[in-house]
Design goal:
With 73 residues, the chain is of the alpha+beta class. 29% of the residues lie in helices and 25% in strands. The two termini are 16 Å apart.
Length: 73
């Protein structure tokens, strides 16, 4: 997991423009663990609609992808 530096987010919510100080996480996992991760995020996150994006990996270092696969068993 990577925890990015604090940032200021500006977004539309319920008809108004909102601002909030936030941090963004980058979490690496496997496809078979993705839904469990999303479920846990929703349980822990205080927002009604937390940001949850899935970025597909088309290619990468064989050693690194193997490490991710082994780490998420």
């Amino acid at each position: 997991m990577n925890v990015l530096p604090p940032m200021r987010s500006i977004y539309a919510w319920k008809g108004a423009t909102e601002q909030a100080d936030e941090r963004q996480l980058v979490i690496k996992t496997s496809r078979h663990r993705m839904r469990a991760l999303e479920t846990r995020l929703r349980e822990l996150h205080p927002y009604d609609v937390p940001e949850f994006l899935v970025l597909s990996v088309l290619e990468g270092s064989r050693d690194y992808l193997f490490w991710v696969a082994e780490s998420t068993k």
